[in-house]
Amino acid sequence: MNVSIKEFDVEMNVKNKGIELDISDANGHIGDLIVTKTQLIWCKGRTTRANGKKVTWEAFAAYMEGL
Fold this sequence. Notes:
mainly beta
């Protein structure tokens, strides 16, 4: 698995636009994970940010605690 940051500003706080992580494996690009101040957005394959699956930080934390 390979995870890389597509853009990285020096500022440590995540801004409204967020940061985008490129997720790939040995077979190529799997998708992008966009991390913003209010939510996570999963964009499988070439899905755009607008069509990605969104989850709030609260919902993500509840999901992870339930594992």
